[in-house]
Amino acid sequence: MDIQPTPVQLIANIIQAKIVGNASLLVTGINEIHCVREGDIVFVDHPKYYQKALQSKASVVIINQETECPDTKALLIHDQPFTAFNQLIRHFQPIRYSLTTISPSAQIGKHTIIFPNVYIGNNVIIGDHTIIYPNTVIYDNCVIGNHVKIHANCTIGADAFYYKKHPDSFEQLETCGNVCIEDYVHIGANCTIDKGVTSSTIIGAHTKLDNHVHVGHDTKIGKRCLIAAHTGIAGATTIGDYVTIWGQVGISSGIHIGNNVTILAQSGVGENISDGQTYFGSPAGPAKEKMREVFAVKQLVKLIHKLY
Amino acid sequence: MDIQPTPVQLIANIIQAKIVGNASLLVTGINEIHCVREGDIVFVDHPKYYQKALQSKASVVIINQETECPDTKALLIHDQPFTAFNQLIRHFQPIRYSLTTISPSAQIGKHTIIFPNVYIGNNVIIGDHTIIYPNTVIYDNCVIGNHVKIHANCTIGADAFYYKKHPDSFEQLETCGNVCIEDYVHIGANCTIDKGVTSSTIIGAHTKLDNHVHVGHDTKIGKRCLIAAHTGIAGATTIGDYVTIWGQVGISSGIHIGNNVTILAQSGVGENISDGQTYFGSPAGPAKEKMREVFAVKQLVKLIHKLY
Amino acid sequence: MDIQPTPVQLIANIIQAKIVGNASLLVTGINEIHCVREGDIVFVDHPKYYQKALQSKASVVIINQETECPDTKALLIHDQPFTAFNQLIRHFQPIRYSLTTISPSAQIGKHTIIFPNVYIGNNVIIGDHTIIYPNTVIYDNCVIGNHVKIHANCTIGADAFYYKKHPDSFEQLETCGNVCIEDYVHIGANCTIDKGVTSSTIIGAHTKLDNHVHVGHDTKIGKRCLIAAHTGIAGATTIGDYVTIWGQVGISSGIHIGNNVTILAQSGVGENISDGQTYFGSPAGPAKEKMREVFAVKQLVKLIHKLY
Lengths: 308, 308, 308
Hints:
- Three copies of one chain form a homotrimer.
- Chain A has helices at 8-15, 47-54, 81-92, 287-307, and strands at 2-7, 18-21, 26-30, 40-44, 60-63, 74-77, 107-108, 113-114, 119-120, 125-126, 131-132, 137-138, 143-144, 149-150, 155-158, 163-166, 169-172, 178-181, 186-187, 192-194, 200-203, 208-209, 214-215, 220-221, 226-227, 232-233, 238-239, 244-245, 250-251, 256-257, 262-263, 268-269, 278-281, 284-286.
- By secondary structure, the first copy, chain A, is of the alpha/beta class.
- Chain A has two domains: 2-92, MurE/MurF, N-terminal domain (Udp-n-acetylmuramoylalanyl-d-glutamate--2,6- Diaminopimelate Ligase, Chain: A, domain 1); 107-288, UDP N-Acetylglucosamine Acyltransferase, domain 1, CATH 2.160.10.
- In chain A, strands 8-11-14-19-22-25-28-31-33-34 form a ten-stranded mixed sheet, covered by helices on one side. An eight-stranded parallel sheet of chain A has the order 7-10-13-18-21-24-27-30, with no helix packed on it.
- In chain A, strand 33 and strand 34 form a beta hairpin.
- The longest helix of chain A is centred in the last third of the chain and has 21 residues, at 287-307.
- The model of chain A has no long low-confidence stretch (mean pLDDT 95).
- The interface between A and B is large, with 38 and 44 residues.
């Protein structure tokens, strides 16, 4: 998320951290490593990812070990970077629960129909000619386009499923992102689309989701995709345009699915898929190969039957 | 759906089509190809399905190519049969959104309990001794029997997931059907049952659904079935009586499952199943064969272990 | 559930049963076979389970055949033990539907936030510093701890999916149990957790559930578990502490998962898993073995390709 330009010294005071490097920087945003820009503050708490953070576009890195600082950056040394990051998000975007069914700060476009029992949080923006069916819930800061349909009992913008493991508990990452649903998207009944951690979960224009679909935090789905019922897509994954996903498919976090891909029903996708491929199976692979495997196992049964 | 008897010439005027064949026919219904009766109007837009439509019971066929017309029928020639069909549905059943939580046109039987935050649309009929738990949503025109239980957060009667692909967008088929839930049915929490396109999605008497079950448009489920959690059944499928379906099963569209069938958990059914069979696997087959395959693969691992 | 101490003779009168054995006993609870204690009444209706019931801690057994009675027990002879058991549950815990959105008998702690359109049933107890997001439904008698988050559109405490098959119908077991959600638990959006039949379904402290998770009746989930989206856990299963379950996993009823277990995505678990194991596949087995099977099938395809 963007913040008002803030001296890095002030940030250091908030989280009680020591500054190393360029102490005169101005911070203009708070973001997770996978969507950082210049001016942003980011955190890293595992040596495995130190270099990725230090070489990212981020201007300020909260880190749990003093290390060499690139010329243009500042480091904030803190024992618990994850906790410090949460503290900053709360500081710059304090939670304000709206306990009215439609927040006074929500903006709703022309010719848009909001059915009864819908909840619309703070700062939500909804375009024109859109229909929100009964009992759907839209959390704070989400943006819904024009000519969108969201069927009943959907949850748009709940928290990311993102926790840091401590010995006796899990610490949840505070989320300040949102969900953006572009024009002409249809969302089936009882779907859930989680908000981005610091940026947006996006459903591209003209994409259609069937019922019970789950889309994790920060996932970006392209335009003109069809996604059938009970499919679950984990966080921080990107999906191209014109992708067809059949029912009960599972897709792991952090992977990339190209354009014009087809994923057959009940597949479990754990790797990137390039443009135009058709995938099947759990674990999924190119459909032709997987169909050969199905055939081969049938042959094997016959062979064993002969032998025994 | 049924309509008042309407001269085919009037239909032709509404959608701006040319009539070929018997121009004096009266149209009495609008239906999809899989549920047409005499007197109905149907559409077809792909040469592959022309003969099926022309030989169906439909009296009038909207078609995108002039072709020989059977004696008893009329053809309506139109560039975009799908769009023309949508236009007719909207003409004969214009959408009227009810923005009250319980529509004044809904009929609710005796000794029936409607919990708070339930939404009941226009012309819904609910029988006697039925319980609708909180926050469930019932769309227009659905029919619910006697002694039915529908648990919380269900969505009954949302749109069919049925789209025609255009180069840059998807056109949704307008739906004028409904959902019929027969007597003594129980529906678990957070289920979704989509309405039929032009006829009914049916859940037969005494059938029990667990939580998170999805039933697609125009699917007919028989009597006394048990369907466990997270099962998804696509559109236009028929399922017999006394069928047991375990958890997380997926069933494709347009297939037929017989009576007394058992489908084991996580199966993916893509073909018809005859009476009395037990199926398993993804893709599913007779359970005995699939168990032999599971065994064979274990033997194969041992064999490969010896060879390498 | 516990009941006021009640002479067994009075119980016999309520259900019109004949007493065999110790007729002077006091009944202090009504429970299912898997959670009976001394003083309880239990039922059994199949000879296969007679010994289990007779040797259980239950003091009184409703049974459909006269048999030898252990010294310290009483038998209640009844043609339909299941129906008689239901009759007792309704006698001692008659249903009282609350048709207000928040029942006057619910207790809600300090600093707890209840969003709009939430339904809270009779006798529900909610702790301090807890957040219940919009449109979630909590059925009667559930107990929610401190520092809990339950996201939107969840259903907590719906009926167990538990039916007795009769030739032409299913008889539902009346449920008088509840759901207990311990401190610091997070429940994602659109989850369902069914109530116990006579005792509690439990989600242990610090456990976090993603969206669309289903937990069946009487299942006990330990502390500090992570359970990803679309996972379904059937009834009367126990899961240890520090268990990680990835997306779209299915777990059968009545089994035991140890501590520190990991279950990979889309697995179908039908057997007990001991501490520390990693499981995969459908049907699931130790992940290393299943990965060898995946590899072996790929080798087999190559071999068949050479042969043909």
